[in-house]
Design a protein that fits this description.
DUF155 domain-containing protein, ten-stranded mixed beta sheet, 9 helices, coiled coil, RMD1/Sad1-interacting, 2 domains, alpha+beta
Amino acid sequence: MLVRAFSRRFCLPRHTPQIARRTYATPAQDIPDSDSPKKPRKSTTPLRRSASASLPIRVNPTPTRSSIQTVFTLATAERYLLSRIRTHPQLQSLGTSQKFHDAWWFSRWGKGKAGDPGEVFVFSNGSFVCWGLEEDEAHRFALEVIGGVPGIEIAPLRAPETEELEFVVDPIETTRLQGDLIILGQSPPLNEITPPTSYPPMTFPPETLFARYAFSQALSRSTALSALEVALDEYLSSMALLPHSLAKTGKPGMGRTALVKKLGELMKFRQGLNLNRENFSDVPDFYWTEPELEKYFDSMSDALDVKVRTDSVNDKITYAAEAQSVLRQLLTETSTHRMELVIIALIAVEVVIALIRDGPELFGSGDAHHSATDQAQAELESVLRRAEAVLRKTEAERREAAAGVRKPITLTPAMAWDGRRHPGPRDDDPMWK
């Protein structure tokens, strides 16, 4: 029975940092592994469920079909500044490269399994896609090209994220994603995009260049989303102890400044997910006039569950934001309670001072005694009224801040309406007499 093996694991390649890797492959035979027990298969992703669709291509080679090769995607940062690639000191020696729509395209780079050069698309979302290159060559590209350009990486990742797929070239087939295998073949002509009149030297057929670009952009989005998922999981782990602290001690266990910093990190996650130009929700403008290329892009995005994963990340961010909102209200109430205690203490001190100052008169006799007593009582009532007013004002401000209510604007007589169509000065305004 043919079984598709899928793994997301942490591996340690030679001369490379620890990598979080997601691979998709369908072997032609089951190879029992006596050292490690088999894990139960998952059937939640469309790519896994449709993996059997690629088996006829894999097990039935034809004279026109190439060998199965690798598409390897690597994300090393949150963003790339693609304009910095032009400043690479050895750009000419790296092979033919140029800007290609929203990517920087290396038409020939490195050496694949068969000894032929591969192809690399570098995208601004912090990832690049290698066609026909193995994992070691992809890491060498990251070291020599990406690492050789100062300032190209914005917010480098602590552990790079990877995606791995496979493809074949068959000129008599139709270009498509079949199961978990990309088939590069015949493509219909473009509608409005004019292909270049001449192409630089490349390893793969020029007529599938735009198809490779569309598949690559979808792959790069999935890998960048994987990096965001890992970062969000680490963030949620750092916040996981707050509910337990509230349940045990009744205190958040985190100061106001630390909580505001955490809220800023959360807003950064949501901005990167939904508001940046290279977000995960919208189809790029490049495909609006090219339905065939949009079909390639959508098929790969659907196979990698990009939309479902984006919704899941948004749900996690929403939950974290609600939890932090509750904590922020608790900190506000705690601060208000402390302010009330301080006001009460100040009132008590003022009463004590009044008693010490007017004590001899209070314990006198006759009219002087009654006069001093009335004066002290009046002073005490005045202090209590001021304290009560301060407490009411503080409580009202706290409620307005918690409810998000804005204070109304008080109109002065000069700002009032005079009953005509447009507002103007009143007749009794001294400025206009």
